Amino acid sequence: MTNREKLALLENMLELEEGELNEEIKLSELENWNSMAKLSLIVLMDDEFGKKLSGEQIRRFETIKDILNFME
Amino acid sequence: MSIGIKAIEYILPEKILTNEELSKIYKDWSAEKILNKTGIASRHIVSKDEHASDLGVKASKKLFEAGVITPGAIDFVILATQSPDYLLPTTSCIIQDKLGIPQTSGALDFNLGCSAYIYGLAMAKSFINTGIAKNVLLIMAETYSKYIHPLDRSVRTIFGDAAAATLICDNDDGHAIGDFDLGTDGSGKNALIIPSGGSRLPKSKKTAKEKEDNGSIRSLDNLYMDGTEVFNFAIRVVPRSIKNILDKHGLTLDDIDLFIFHQANKFILEFLKKKIMIPNEKFYVNMQDIGNTVSASIPIALKRAEEEGRLHKKDKILITGFGVGFSWGSTIITY
Lengths: 72, 335
Known about the structure:
The complex is a heterodimer. Chain A is mainly alpha-helical. Chain A has 4 helices and no strands.
């Protein structure tokens, strides 16, 4: 999966327009990065990548890039 | 003869809290968004002078009024609540007295939340099996709203108050309660907690101090839920518990007529359904107007499924509870 495709998954999850996200964006700056978004991310990781995502891991994410790296 | 659930009744407090009201407080959450994310449109909330025993008494009276049994025939009261009237005495003792249940009956409270119904059925079945009791009144009564800070949107959108009363007895109608799969993981204690008010951290001016956290406000006197931890816990243990309980009975998913999980919220239920691969038509969700009613959610869902004609004689219903503790449990009942 390309980075653009991964970004699209996150944009869809966060209910953002296509192209709104880039790797450098800090999660703390995203208005939609709330508890429901975190649950959605756990589901997305499981559905799309077969990966388990812990609360601890989520707390370590600072930027969009950190999430993209975890998707590998 | 078999030991099973003879009847269920439930009660909801009169006052209703809608998403429209909540969206006025939580500015960036519309009523529609709350419904989409949680599957909840409104919840019932107790008034200030309404308590767990009041709800428990009302739900039990409905059983008596329905003519299922008389108070005089009950010989054990088991109450699950985490919002008791008092720290002591035991709330089920108050209920015994208010309902006019004989003084020769046993009564006890136990402190579990969303898994409580399964544990209550396990105890009721054991008491009857060993001849300790004949007719067990199992009550789930919870008023979490008393613990929730009005500005804590993470839990106020989810939880609703309610009580359910279940009569368990030996019967020849075919109603049966099967084996149990129970589990505990106390390492999750901080994920769903009211930090103060027990002996470890008594309530004080300090614990009442409010703090902002992720758009919600609460103090140590309030209910706190770490949604991601609880979600991860549920997706870790529920599929395993379902497998265990099916194996124990020598059954497969196909043998089950209806799955009724603790009605936590739509998001988590949809995920579990997909993960375990339960067909839509066998998965019961009915919580839009009441929210997550903690221990009462499974008996309320059972009663509603019955009223909708979803339950048929000899149907096998798999029920699973999971939550605070962490604690979980599953069983298979025959209708």
